[in-house]
Prior knowledge:
The chain is an alpha+beta fold. Helix content is 24%, strand content 27%. It has helices spanning 23-44, 64-74, and strands spanning 48-56, 84-88, 92-96, 101-105, 121-124, 128-136. Strand 1, helix 2 and strand 2 form a beta-alpha-beta unit. The mean pLDDT is 87. Zinc ion binds next to loops.
Amino acid sequence: MPAWDPPRPLISPPRARRGGTRPVHEVALAGEVLRLVQDAAAREGFARVSRLTLEAGALAGVEVPALRFALEALAPGTCLEGAALQIDEPPATAWCDPCAASVPVRSRLDACPHCGGLPLRPTGGTQLRVLDLVVHDR
Ligand SMILES: [Zn+2]
């Protein structure tokens, strides 16, 4: 007689997720940045990158140190190996209807610095993008 196997759950139990840092998010972003650079390398025929400049807006939801760490971890063996990595963090801007003006904000929860009005509509600094690549043929 075979030993009785206890039934296994069909769905694995959910994993607890801690709030705060989300390194997985930055690892996925770093993978996307690397893919963009590799696509450009295939299209334009360069072999390596000596400098990569990214822009992570203040409202882009990117932990810049985590993104830098993830990119440095992915770089060996790719065209980004040895590349200097610069990540600019420009302040974000948002539109305030009562003031009919664009105002600087540090987070999506900020009120208008002039009239205290809420909500503001983010108009800039919401993106992560590649600003510049310095490339070499070999
Ligand atoms: Zn205002």
